[in-house]
Amino acid sequence: MKQHFNDFYWKDYLNITLGAALYAFGVIGFIQPAGIVMGGLPGIALLIEYGSRIPLQYTYFVINVLLLLIGLKVLGLKFLVKTIYCVFIATFFLSAFRKIITQPMVENEMLMSGIIGGMLCGAGMAFVFGSNGSAGGVSIIVSIINKYKNISFGRGVMLVDFVIISCSLFVFRDFIKIVHGLIVMGVMIYTIDLVMNGLRQSVQFMIVSSKYEAIADTINNELNRGCTVLDGTGWYSKKPTKVIMLLARQSEASEIFRMIKSIDDKAFISQSVVRGVWGQGFDSIKGK
Length: 288
What we know:
By secondary structure, this protein is of the alpha+beta class. It has helices at 9-31, 40-52, 56-75, 77-100, 110-130, 138-148, 153-166, 168-172, 175-200, 212-221, 253-263; strands spanning 202-208, 227-234, 239-249, 268-273.
């Protein structure tokens, strides 16, 4: 357990809860009333509901539990702990919104419902992914496959989503339903990238602290990031000092601030956005 972050894990679960609520609202308020099939396990649950009238939240929960049991054996509990929480909280919100929302938010506008629903679902998934969580379902299947086969995670998810959406043809016998499903998938992917773009941005920290050794060790051992300690001189005091230079992802910034505060709440910190970082732990160096 990371000793400097124990008090802050609740914020990850708060973000996952918010993300699950947005996702459930998008599905129940817009996508399901419009009769659109989306990707992922909710798409399978929607197909079953359209064909048999079994409420999607029940199918979503049961299939996820089965996949989680398989995933626990293959991937381990540590990998799936946030996924388990997300599955339970998402099922709760799906059931709650099903009781609260008694009529479509947008009537007789399938395309508009799909776009709004896709944006809400995409934003919700961005909050979940940004907290290193997962909504289960397809992501568990692809993670298991990815453990044994060298397949791109994103490509695997998109392929499975495309197959699920295409299966709506057997339920509705309507090609337009597939088109709307693909639009929802595209809007979700775009929204996820848009929301998470800032979280993936790289930042540079310059940290001045008398406890630089403890901070640098924690960066190495608990954040798994490298850092550089530079020699400096405080020109007002004319005393030598140490300056830690650290490059990290934007999504790691909050943890870095929390960690520094827990060690030295009087540290001097500057943070700046960098245009690009290449090397180990970041993007690969590209050459001709």
